[in-house]
Amino acid sequence: MSTKLPEGIPRQHWHCSWPQLFTARRPFNHRSRETENLPFIEYLVKPSEEADEDDGEEYGSNEDGGNEDEIDDEDDVPSDEDEDEDAESCSEQSDVRRFMIGMVGEVDRLMSRDQLDLVASFCEESKTETNESEKRKPVALLDERCMDGTMSDKRGFYRPYPGPLTCQELRERLGRKRFRADPVKDPATHAIEDEQHDAARRIVFITDLDSSAIEALVTTVALTQAPALQNLFYKHLTSTASIGVTIKSHGFQAFTLEFHIPYYVLRNNQIPRRDARKKPNGEPLRQFWELPFLSMPTNSKPTPTDERYYLYEAMTSVGVTGNDHWIWAAYAFVDTYYDARESVDSYHQMKGWRQGRADPLAAGKIDADQPLWDPRMYFLKVVEIRTELVLMEWSQIMNKIEREVQQYVWCGGFVSDICALLH
C-alpha cells in the first residue's frame, strides 16, 4: 500500500502508525459546520474577501489557540489577480470542469496532466446524449448517520433511508445540509432542522458512474472531500489499478483511503450487454468481446445454443475520506451494465448479514444497521469483500475455459481436427 507522507514527518513513524489526530475527536465548531455544508464549487465562486475570511478561520481551535488544523494554508488561497482572471471564464465552464480545476494552483498537484480534461470532457460530451429513461433509472443508495454522545443503539442516530435513488434524487439528498446548525450560533435554524441528524458517517453507492452521477457529487461535496473525489473520478474512468493512503500534508489535515481494481467478467447472453456510457471519442467506456469457442458444439452439447459467451470489462472503485474517526464519507463506484446482480434494486431488496439492511459497498455482507464506525476497519473490510468478488469472477473465467478445453480434447474434437489436417 502506497502512502504519501507529509513533509518533515519521520518516514519510519508514518510506516508504523496511524496519525493520532484522526483517532481523537477533533474540535468541530460553527465555522466547521458551515464549511462542511458548503459545496466546493460554491466555495470557489465566493467573494474573495469572504473566502479569505473562511481560509483564515480555524476549522477547530486547540487549547493553545494555535492553527494546526486550519482549513487551508496560504498555498491554497488564490491571489486577487488570479481570482479576477478566473471569474471571467468561470461562468462559461461546466460544474465538473470547475470542480476538477479546483483552486488556483491545484492543477499541478493532479496525478496526471490530462486528469482535468478527461473527466470534464467525459461529462460534457455524454451529457447531451443521456436520454430520459436513463435519468429516471435508480443508480444510487445512500446511508447517513452519526455517533453523537453515548449510544445505546448500535445503529447510531440515522437519517431516514430513502431507498434507491436516481441521479437527480441523489443530488437533492446530498444537497441538504450535512450538519445541523450550531444551536449556540443559530438556535432558530437548529430547532427547525432538529429532526435531521448529522450525516457524520456517509455511505454512497453508485452503479455505472456516468456524467449525471458525477454532477450530483461535484455540485454537493464539500471542500474537504473534493481532492478525494477528483482522484476517484479519474482512476475509475481510466480503469487505473491502485490502492493507497493519502494524508493531506498542508492546511487542514484529512485522510483518504482508496482502492481501484479493474477486472473482467464472463456472462452468457443471447445478445451482448453494451455499456451506454461513451468516451469523448464516441467509444463505449467499457468494452466486451465475444468468445465463440465457448459456444462450439461438443459431444455433451452437440448443437450450439442461442446464448453466447461474452467477456466484459468491469471496474470497482472505493474511497473513504474524512477528518477523523467520527466524520468521514465512503464512496463506491461499481460497474453493473453487464447484469443486474449488483443493481441498487437488488441491494434494496436484499437482507444483510444479520437480516438487516444490506450494505452495498460490502456486497451485502455487512449489515447496514450494525455499522462499522472506524473508517479504516470499514475500508479494509470492504476491500477484502470486493477482492474476493473479483477473485470469484477470475476463477469463473479460468474454470469455464479449462472445462471447455478439456471437453474439446477428450471428446475427440482435437483428434478429428488433426485427422482432417493430415488428409
**Could you describe the largest sheet, including whether it forms a barrel?**
9 strands, mixed
Please tell me what the overall shape is. globular
Cα gyration radius (Å): 25 Å
How many strand units?
Answer: 9
Order of helices and strands: EHHHHHHHHHEEHHEHHEEEEEHHH
SS element count, helices: 16
Total count of domains: 1
Low-confidence stretches: 52-58, 61-78, 187-194
Class of secondary structure makeup: alpha+beta
End-to-end separation in angstroms reads 58 Å
Mean pLDDT: 81
Fraction in beta strands: 15-25%
Structure notes:
Strands 1, 2, 3, 4, 5, 6, 7, 8 and 9 form a nine-stranded mixed beta sheet that branches. Residues 52-58, 61-78 and 187-194 have low confidence and may be disordered. β5 (242-247) and β6 (255-269) form a beta hairpin. This protein has helices spanning 11-16, 20-23, 30-37, 40-44, 48-56, 80-90, 95-101, 115-127, 132-135, 167-174, 187-192, 211-218, 226-237, 344-349, 375-410, 413-422, and strands at 2-4, 140-146, 157-158, 201-207, 242-247, 255-269, 288-290, 308-322, 328-334. The protein is an alpha+beta fold and 423 residues long. The protein is globular and about 75 Å long. The chain is built from 16 helices and nine strands. It has one domain (27-266, 312-394).
